[in-house]
Amino acid sequence: MRRKIKSNVKKPDVKREKRTLIANQVEHDRKTNATYGIFQNVAIWDVDLSKHFASFMQTKFPGVTRMFENKFMEISGNEYIWFPALAVLYLMHPLVHKQLPLNLAIAMAFDSAVILLIKALFKRRRPTAKNPDFFTAIGPDQYSFPSGHASRTTLIAFVFTQINPLFDNGHLNFVISTLIWSWSISVCFSRMLNGRHYLFDVLTGAGIGLCEGSFIVSFFWMSPEQAEGLRRFFPLGNASSDMT
Q1: Helices marked H in 77-193
Q2: Where does the record place the Phosphatidic acid phosphatase type 2/haloperoxidase domain (predicted)?
Q3: Which of 3, 57, 199, 217 is the most buried (most CB within 10 A)?
Q4: Three-state secondary structure readout of 165-182
Q5: How far apart are CA 24 and CA 34, in angstroms?
């Protein structure tokens, strides 16, 4: 009989290496986010909490974490996708009323300006990402605070609930509203689990999205009649509607 030869090579301790990696990332992020004046303690607390949250999710709920980490979550919340999509929706008149794409376009343009201004002001560096974003961040968008994906998707969900074309159908309206809010929350989670933002970035972004939605509805909201009245400034929209 052959004798089994015991190997003297020690197997790598995966859990220990993972803990060490997380600790190194936390220390790295602490150093790169340590110049915030009165916000320094909040930034350090945010780094620690964000890492612990990601580690907890990856350990306890690996399946859910993988779902949040997929590229769909990132791409579906990107403005590079939404602005062209709104242009398509605008040209689909009368299948989609112009009030929906026009109000969303105004809201998202306002959101982009607010988020880029705050990012340029705070210049918080992003955490160490597991995977780079599909779209390259340029200008102030390379910074972390606040999360543009969180503000954008929260704003979209908020505005959509104000002009959901399915209001007359109570059950279907409830289902669609639940789905779009679930998508928005999932995108927010994905930004943390992908290592693109810290917890405070996402929470602040979502709060900004809600405030922007309330502001847009109160001061810049376009009624169906006002949205319809703008058709004369958009020949393509007129042409498409005249053909129907």
Answers
A1: 79-91, 99-122, 148-162, 170-193
A2: 100-217
A3: 199
A4: CCCCCHHHHHHHHHHHHH
A5: 15
Residue 82, CA distances (Å) to 107, 115, 198, 199 in order: 12, 16, 24, 24
Question: Exposed, middle or buried, 180 (CB in 10 Å: 0-12/13-18/19+)?
Answer: middle
Low-confidence ranges of the chain (pLDDT < 70): 1-38, 93-96, 129-137, 139, 164-170, 230-244
Are the C-beta atoms of residues 34 and 43 closer than 8 Å to each other?
yes
* Tokens 């505005």, located at residue: 159
**φ/ψ (deg, to 5) at 201:** -60, -45
Distances (CA, A) of 110 to 6, 136, 213: 66, 21, 10
Rounded CA-CA distance 93/8 in Å is 72
Q: Measuring CA to CA, which residue among 103, 188, 101 is closest to residue 151?
A: 188
What pLDDT digit, counting tens, does each position of 77-128 carry? 888 888 888 888 777 766 567 777 888 888 999 999 999 999 999 888 888 7
Enumerate residues 6+ apart whose C-beta is below 8 A from 31. none
